[in-house]
Structures are given as C-alpha cells and as structure tokens.
Specification:
Elements (H helix, E strand, L loop, with lengths): L1 H58 L5 E6 L16 E5 L6 E9 L5 E12 L7
Antiparallel strand pairs: 1-4, 2-3, 3-4
C-alpha cells in the first residue's frame, strides 16, 4: 500500500509540473511588460522635459509668458534609453511660436529619432494707442 500511495503522489506532482512552468512563464511575461511600460514612460518624460527646456531656452525671456502643448509620444514606440543628451531641433526654423515640430534624436547607444508636434503660445505686453 505504501508503494501505491507513493506512486499516486509522484503522478500528482508530475501533473502539476507543467502548470508551474506555465505560471512561471506568465509571471515572467507580466514582469517584462511592466518593465517595457516603465521604460516607455521614462523615455516619454525625458523627451517632454527636454522639449520644455529647449523651448524655454529658445524664447530666452523674449515674452511675458508662454504656454506649451506637447503631443505625447506614442507609448507603443520602443525607444531605447539614451546615454547622451537628447538632440533637439525645431521646424520651421524661422518661427519660435505657433505650431512647430520638434525633431528629437538620440545617437548613443542605439540611434533613433522622432518628430513631436508642439504648439507654443507666447504672450507679451503691448502698448495700444487710440
């Protein structure tokens, strides 16, 4: 009888082994998904901060105040983290307010570039005579 019980226990453990492996695989996939989402969120935040700093420097106290609207980067993009500072350029280059497109690029470790639409509304005090 003892051998019979051991065989039953062994067969039950063997039956559970594939389900444990499946559980481990599922947990690993969930972890990888959260990690990828966190990297995308960080890249998006870095891009938005870099654009905001660039616009502040570009306006260089020329206006009383400004409002900046940045279109969010698509979260499905898999942008690798940038070890160097992000490179930014705006188009069209003859304007510093209105609808602009920012070219954001990274050179190292794996190069990428994206174009991010922004809108800059600049406000200043003006003298009006009647």
């Amino acid at each position: 009888m003892n051998r019979f019980k051991q065989q039953i226990l062994y067969s039950q453990k063997a039956a559970l082994a594939p389900s444990r492996a499946l559980l481990h695989c599922c947990l690993l996939l969930i972890f990888i998904g959260f990690h990828a989402h966190a990297q995308a969120s960080t890249a998006n935040q870095d891009i938005q901060q870099a654009i905001h700093s660039y616009v502040e420097d570009m306006l260089n106290s020329q206006f009383e105040k400004f409002e900046l609207s940045i279109q969010p980067v698509d979260s499905r993009l898999k942008l690798s983290p940038c070890d160097d500072a992000l490179q930014l350029q705006h188009r069209p280059t003859n304007r510093i307010h209105g609808r602009l497109t920012m070219k954001v690029s990274c050179e190292y470790p794996s190069p990428w570039r994206i174009h991010v639409p922004i809108q800059v509304q600049a406000y200043d005090k003006v003298v009006v005579s009647v």
